[in-house]
Amino acid sequence: MENKVIYITGGTKGIGFGIAEILLKNGYFVAISGRRDEDVKRAESQLSEISPNVLGVVSNVKNYNDEENAVKQIIDKFGKLDGVIANAGLGIFKPVDELSAEEWNDMIDTNLTGVFYTLKASVDELKKSEGYYITISSLAGANFFEKGSGYNATKFGVVGFTQAAMIDLRKYNIKVCTIMPGSVATNFNGNVPSEKDAWKIQPEDMGNLVLDILRMNPRVLPSKIEFRATRPDIK
Questions:
Q1: Which SUPFAM superfamilies does the protein's record reference (predicted)?
Q2: Is the Cβ–Cβ distance between 150 and 99 less than 8 Å?
Q3: Cβ atoms within 10 Å, residue 111
Q4: Are 152 and 138 in contact (CB under 8 A)?
Q5: How confident is the model at residue 196 (pLDDT cuts 50, 70, 90)?
Q6: Which of 45, 76, 89, 197 is the most buried (most CB within 10 A)?
Q7: CA-wise closest residue to 61 among 11, 13, 95, 20
Q8: What is the pLDDT of residue 124?
Q9: CB of 187 closer than 8 Å to CB of 181
Q10: What is the average pLDDT score of the chain?
Q11: What's the DSSP call for residue 77?
């Protein structure tokens, strides 16, 4: 670990928060971002109970200048950046004929363009550290479904983007991979996690997977990982 610094977008709740918890418990320095100042402050306060080595920054991944500023704050605080988890995402599920142009663009700008902006803002630091860039896609990036046209488009795009970026950046010893989880017990799409979600992937499961990836020998790269619940039929 050696005090490695990891930046997690969309880290104020759900998958991003779960990853932050696991990394902090295992000695990593962690920066999280979110769009709203109050959410960032709340999450930073909660995570600081695990470790003081946490930084919350306000950033909307749809805004490239925000992501540039987030990386600058991380460097100012910790002096380096060893890994980035591009996790921020949005899902709107409607039949394609009912999906508005605004909803389409909101998903594209957050889920796909945001992933590019986060990489663009951090890639120079990752070249220095020969670090990791991990995107959180979805099984929806390989399997289309009803009412998922916009979401499918973004997540298929994230998988393609990440795999191409992996080829571009491997010569710098940057490790690029995408994780494609199935159903996760989070607040995504208005869900309120409860016992009914016990069969799903939990945020800490995502955190432990990221931890395993970061601990791998740098000569190997799990470039694309499908991650699903063992028994989705048990509910």
A1: NAD(P)-binding Rossmann-fold domains
A2: yes
A3: 28
A4: no
A5: confident
A6: 89
A7: 11
A8: 98
A9: no
A10: 95
A11: H
Residue 69 burial (CB count, 10 A): 16
Q: Which two tokens stand for residue 194?
A: 């409860």
Q: What is the dihedral of CA 209, 212, 214, 215, to 10 degrees?
A: 170
Q: How many Å apart are CA 224 and CA 235, to the nearest integer? A: 28
Rounded Cα distance between 138 and 158, Å, is 9
User: Both tokens of residue 53?
Assistant: 């080595």
Query: Residue holding tokens 């500023």?
Result: 69
Supply 195's token pair.
Answer: 């016992």
Q: CATH number of the domain at 5-227, please?
A: 3.40.50.720
Q: Token pair for residue 113?
A: 């363009």
Q: Using the 8-state DSSP alphabet, how is residue 202 labeled?
A: P
- 142: its two tokens: 């390989």
Q: What is the pLDDT at residue 195?
A: 80
Contact 70, 1 (CB under 8 A): no
Q: Of all helices (H) and strands (E), which one includes residue 69?
A: helix 64-78
Looking at residue 171, what is its pLDDT? Answer: 98
Structure tokens at 226: 């499908």
Q: Phi and psi of 60, rounded to 5°? A: -105, 115
Q: Under a CB-based contact definition with an 8 Å cutoff, are residues 158 and 134 in contact?
A: no
Encode burial over 142-168: b for 16+ CB neighbours within 10 A, e otherwise.
eeeeeebbbbbbbbbbbbebbeebbee
Residues 6+ positions from 29 with CB-CB distance below 8 Å: 3, 4, 5, 6, 53, 54, 55, 78
Domain ranges of the chain: 5-227
Return the DSSP state at 52: S
- Is the alpha carbon torsion for 35, 148, 198, 23 positive or negative? negative
Tokens 């986060």 correspond to 118
Q: pTM to 2 decimals?
A: 0.95
